[in-house]
Amino acid sequence: MIPPRRLGQGEQLAYFRLWWPEFRSYVREGKLIATGRLQPTDVSAVYTVQFNQRGGDGPEVRVVEPLLRRNKDGAKIPHMYAQERLCLYLPGSGEWKPTDPIALTIVPWTSLWLYFYEVWHATGDWLGGGVHPDIPITIRKAQHERYQRRK
Known about the structure:
Strand order of the largest sheet: 1-2-3-4
Shape: globular
Oligomer: single chain
CATH topology: Ubiquitin Conjugating Enzyme
Structural class: alpha+beta
Largest sheet: 4 strands, antiparallel
Helix content: 25-40%
Number of helices: 3
C-alpha cells in the first residue's frame, strides 16, 4: 500500500480557495499564508486569524484581531505557545498530519478553539480538553494517553 503523500503548498492553497474563498490566501517564498475572519457562534466576536505553513511543517495560527487577553483573574490564556500561537493539536500525536488539508482541519479547529476561549472568559474553566503545551514532555505524554482513553 502506498502511504499518503504530503500536500504541497499549491494543494493547500487550492483547499483554502475552495473552502474559504473569502480568506486572502497565497504562497510567497515557499510559505502558505491565509488570513480570514472566523466567528465561532452567532453571538461571538469576529476574529481575524492568520494561518502560516512552510513546507510540510505544522501550521502556525495567530489571532490578529481582536487581541487575545488574559481572563479577569489575570491567568495566561490556555493552549497557546508563548501566548502568541494557538495550540490546536498535540504535535507528533497524529491528530494533524502534513497529508491533511489545513482548510478542512486546522481552520475548523481554530473556530472551536475560539469558542472555548470565550467560554473560558465566561466561566474561568477551559472546557476544550487537550494537553497543554507548556508542561514537561513526560507529563504531556501521560496526559495525552489519558485524554485518548477518554475519547
